[in-house]
C-alpha cells in the first residue's frame, strides 16, 4: 500500500473515554487497554481497510487458522511521556523490522512500513492521555498479526488481521527475580522459531514456568535444547551475566530473540567502556563464578521487564544467591536507558522517536 493510501486510515472515535475509571497507580501489567485500537485485514493478496476504532471485542470464526495452528506473531513497544508532555517511542524501527522477520518465519505476509508507523502515530496521539507522566509509567504497545482465514486444513492462511492494542503499564516485575536454569524442558531448537516473536514460543513456556513458580522461581533461564549446557534467554527477557567486570550474553541465533533492550544495553555498555562478550555462555562457568565469588550480577532485559536484577538462580537443586552490588551495572544501564526513553538526557544513538 502506498503512503497516500495510509493517510486514509479510517478513524472511529469513542463517544466517551474510559480513562476516568482507571487506577493508574495500581495497574496489573497488560490488563487495562486504552480507548482505541488499530485493525487492518489482509485479503486478496493485500493489506486493506486500516482502521482505528474503539477498543473492544472482535468477531472471528472459531475455525480461523490462528486457533488451530497458532499462526500468530507479536511485538512489545512502549510510549513514554517526558516532563514537558512530549511523547516518545523507543527504536520503533527495530520492532517494525522484527515483526516482519517473525511474520516471514511464520509464513505471514509482511506488514507495510508506512501503515505501521502511521497507525502508531495516530493511535498514540489519539490516546495520548493514557501515557502517564513520570518515570516508570508508560503505555505498552502490542502490535500483533494472526491468521484469520476460516478452515482447518493445515496450510498457511490466506487472510490475516494485524492489530495494535495499547495498555498503560508500570513495572512488569516488582522486586528482584529468582530464576531456575532449565535442565529438562527447552524453549527453542536450531532451525526452530526461537528467534521469532511467535505467540507459541510464549505459550509453550507456561507449563515449565509454572513448575518453576511452584518452587519459588518467577522465570526459567532456558538452555540449549541439545545438552542444556549453554545459557540462552529467559521467558520474557534476554539475560546478561556480569563476571568480575565483564558482561556476558548469548549471541543472537535462530534460537534467541534479537531483543531491542538487549542490543541497547550492549551499545550503552560499549559506550561506557565496559567489556561485553556476546558468546555462548556455559552454565558451568556461571555456576563456578557463583561459587568463587566472581559472579557479580545477573539481569534480564526486555521491553516489558526493562532491566530486572536476578537475585538468585537455581541449578540442579542448589540455589545460588547473588549479593547486591554497589556499582551495579543493572542499575547503571537502567538509569541510562530510562533517561534516554523519557527524554531526560541526550540521545547519542538517535533512539528516540517523537510522536
Ligand atoms: C516484551 O517485553 O515486550 C515482551 O514481549 C514480553 C512479554 C511476553 C510480556
TrEMBL record:
Keywords, comma-separated and alphabetical: Amino-acid biosynthesis, Aminotransferase, Branched-chain amino acid biosynthesis, Pyridoxal phosphate, Transferase
Gene3D superfamilies cross-referenced by the UniProt entry: 3.30.470.10, D-amino Acid Aminotransferase, subunit A, domain 2
Name under which the protein is recorded: Branched-chain-amino-acid aminotransferase
SUPFAM superfamilies documented for this protein: D-aminoacid aminotransferase-like PLP-dependent enzymes
Record InterPro entries: Aminotrans_IV, Aminotrans_IV_CS, Aminotransferase-like, B_amino_transII, BCAT-like_C, BCAT-like_N, BCAT_family
Requisite cofactors: pyridoxal 5'-phosphate
Family: Belongs to the class-IV pyridoxal-phosphate-dependent aminotransferase family.
Highest taxon listed in the record's lineage: Bacteria
Function summary: Acts on leucine, isoleucine and valine.
EC number(s) from the headed UniProt entry: 2.6.1.42
Reactions performed catalytically: L-isoleucine + 2-oxoglutarate = (S)-3-methyl-2-oxopentanoate + L-glutamate; L-leucine + 2-oxoglutarate = 4-methyl-2-oxopentanoate + L-glutamate; L-valine + 2-oxoglutarate = 3-methyl-2-oxobutanoate + L-glutamate
A molecular function GO annotation: branched-chain-amino-acid transaminase activity
Organism encoding this protein: Aequorivita echinoideorum
Annotated CDD domains: BCAT_beta_family
UniProt pathway: Amino-acid biosynthesis; L-valine biosynthesis; L-valine from pyruvate: step 4/4; Amino-acid biosynthesis; L-leucine biosynthesis; L-leucine from 3-methyl-2-oxobutanoate: step 4/4; Amino-acid biosynthesis; L-isoleucine biosynthesis; L-isoleucine from 2-oxobutanoate: step 4/4
Amino acid at each position: 500500500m502506498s503512503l497516500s493510501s495510509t493517510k486514509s486510515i479510517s478513524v472511529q472515535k469513542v463517544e466517551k473515554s474510559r480513562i476516568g475509571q482507571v487506577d493508574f497507580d495500581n495497574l496489573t501489567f497488560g490488563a487495562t487497554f486504552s480507548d482505541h485500537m488499530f485493525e487492518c485485514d489482509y485479503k486478496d493478496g493485500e493489506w486493506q481497510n486500516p482502521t482505528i476504532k474503539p477498543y473492544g471485542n472482535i468477531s472471528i470464526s472459531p475455525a480461523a487458522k490462528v486457533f488451530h495452528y497458532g499462526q500468530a506473531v507479536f511485538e512489545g513497544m512502549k510510549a513514554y511521556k517526558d516532563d514537558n508532555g512530549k511523547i516518545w517511542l523507543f527504536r520503533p524501527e527495530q520492532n517494525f523490522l522484527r515483526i516482519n522477520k517473525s511474520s516471514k518465519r511464520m509464513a505471514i505476509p509482511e506488514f507495510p512500513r508506512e501503515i505501521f508507523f502511521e497507525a502508531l502515530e495516530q493511535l498514540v496521539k489519539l490516546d495520548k492521555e493514557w501515557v502517564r507522566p513520570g518515570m516508570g509509567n508508560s503505555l505498552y504497545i502490542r502490535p500483533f498479526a494472526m491468521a484469520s482465514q476460516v478452515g482447518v486444513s493445515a496450510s498457511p492462511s490466506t487472510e490475516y488481521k494485524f492489530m495494535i492494542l495499547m495498555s498503560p503499564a508500570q513495572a512488569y516485575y516488582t522486586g528482584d527475580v529468582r530464576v531456575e536454569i532449565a535442565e529438562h524442558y527447552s524453549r527453542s531448537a536450531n532451525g526452530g522459531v526461537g528467534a521469532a516473536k511467535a505467540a507459541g514460543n510464549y505459550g509453550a513456556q507456561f507449563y515449565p514456568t509454572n513448575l518453576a513458580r511452584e518452587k519459588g522461581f518467577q522465570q526459567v533461564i532456558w538452555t540449549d535444547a541439545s545438552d542444556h549446557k549453554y545459557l540462552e534467554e529467559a521467558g520474557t527477557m534476554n539475560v546478561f551475566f556480569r563476571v568480575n567486570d565483564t558482561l556476558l550474553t548469548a549471541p543472537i541465533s535462530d534460537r534467541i530473540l534479537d531483543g531491542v533492550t538487549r542490543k541497547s544495553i550492549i551499545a550503552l555498555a560499549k559506550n561506557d567502556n565496559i567489556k561485553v562478550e556476546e558468546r555462548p555462555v556455559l552454565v558451568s562457568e556461571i555456576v563456578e563464578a557463583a561459587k568463587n565469588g566472581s559472579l557479580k550480577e545477573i539481569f534480564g532485559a526486555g521491553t516489558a521487564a526493562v532491566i530486572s536484577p536476578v537475585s538468585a538462580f537455581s541449578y540442579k537443586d542448589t540455589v545460588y544467591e547473588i549479593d547486591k552490588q554497589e556499582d551495579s551495572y543493572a542499575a547503571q544501564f537502567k538509569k541510562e536507558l530510562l533517561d534516554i526513553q523519557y527524554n531526560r538526557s541526550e540521545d547519542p544513538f538517535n533512539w528516540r522517536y517523537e510522536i
